[in-house]
Automatic annotation (TrEMBL):
<protein>
    <submittedName>
        <fullName>2-hydroxycyclohexanecarboxyl-CoA dehydrogenase</fullName>
    </submittedName>
</protein>
<dbReference type="Pfam" id="PF13561">
    <property type="entry name" value="adh_short_C2"/>
</dbReference>
<dbReference type="InterPro" id="IPR036291">
    <property type="entry name" value="NAD(P)-bd_dom_sf"/>
</dbReference>
<comment type="similarity">
    <text>Belongs to the short-chain dehydrogenases/reductases (SDR) family.</text>
</comment>
<dbReference type="GO" id="GO:0016616">
    <property type="term" value="F:oxidoreductase activity, acting on the CH-OH group of donors, NAD or NADP as acceptor"/>
</dbReference>
<dbReference type="InterPro" id="IPR002347">
    <property type="entry name" value="SDR_fam"/>
</dbReference>
Length: 255
């Protein structure tokens, strides 16, 4: 059984696209798939970060990596991303919709521009890339991994809009899974709690005590905690799991 599990985590010959993988959680997710043998598309709106990450993980794990500049909130750019991946790497097996824009702001102090940015990247980014990738994923019985966030429950003041987008991702995951299961495509979601990244550094420092109180396992997450869940859900070890949201949150207590 363990040998089969290990084989299932071997992504050799597969092409994996991770959006928002120039830095943060996405970077570690991309590196984990490279370590597992996949060719990895490092897609990010920050092309310098994408190029640097692609170079670093390519040389570390000896797999093919392809940096692509994309704004996932734009449908045409999402289509171009998929076209480039297929043209350069021959197809697409796994799409990880990791790109997101957080940033706490009380709803009364927010404005439509802020909503557009958060919903544009965190929700529309997921819809755009998934819609663009589906024909390729159907071709290869592929997998989509979406991202919710602990804030989808509506328990985090300041994250109303971000949380709403993440709740939508969770619902979208389930419905899409029912629509494309018959085509051999699985769709799952990870729901991370607070994770140490450059983007969360200041927030984590400011709220360190409250944060620790909120996690049953007495620590906040690392990008690798999320990456191992994503790789598992994308792998054949999860071949009978679809429409699911896996909470990767150290037992977040504000559920
Ligand atoms: P996290 O803590 O969730 O990892 P980060 O801000 O560290 O958040 O990383 C998010 C990544 O998503 C960054 O590399 C960022 O450039 C990327 N990103 C943000 N907006 C977009 C977008 N519109 N299209 C593609 N990538 C994006």
């Amino acid at each position: 059984m363990l040998e089969a599990f290990e084989d299932a985590l071997d992504f050799s010959g597969q092409v994996v696209c991770v959006t928002g993988s120039g830095r943060g959680i996405g970077e570690t997710v991309a590196a984990s798939f490279a370590e597992a043998g996949a060719a990895v598309v490092v897609a990010d709106v920050d092309v310098d970060a994408a190029e640097e990450t692609a170079e670093t993980i390519g040389s570390e794990y000896g797999t093919e990596t392809l940096p692509v500049e994309v704004d996932v909130s734009d449908y045409d750019e999402a289509r171009a991303l998929v076209e480039t991946a297929v043209a350069e790497l021959g197809g697409l097996d796994v799409l990880v919709n990791n790109a997101g824009v957080a940033g706490a702001r009380r709803f009364r102090e927010s404005d439509p521009e802020d909503w557009d940015r958060k919903i544009g990247v965190s929700l529309y980014g997921t819809l755009n890339c998934t819609h663009a990738a589906l024909p390729e994923l159907v071709d290869r019985s592929g997998v989509v991994i979406n991202y919710a966030s602990s804030s989808y429950r509506g328990n985090d003041p300041g994250l109303a809009v971000y949380g709403a987008a993440k709740a939508a991702n969770r619902s979208f995951t389930k419905t899409l899974a029912t629509e494309v299961g018959g085509d051999g495509v699985r769709v799952n979601c990870v729901c991370p709690g607070t994770v140490h990244t450059p983007a969360t550094e200041a927030f984590v420092e400011q709220y360190a005590d409250e944060l620790l109180d909120a996690y049953a396992l007495d620590r906040i997450g690392d990008p690798a905690d999320v990456a191992s869940a994503v790789v598992f859900l994308a792998s054949d070890a999860a071949e009978w799991i679809t429409g699911e949201t896996l909470h990767v949150d150290g037992g977040y207590l504000r559920r």
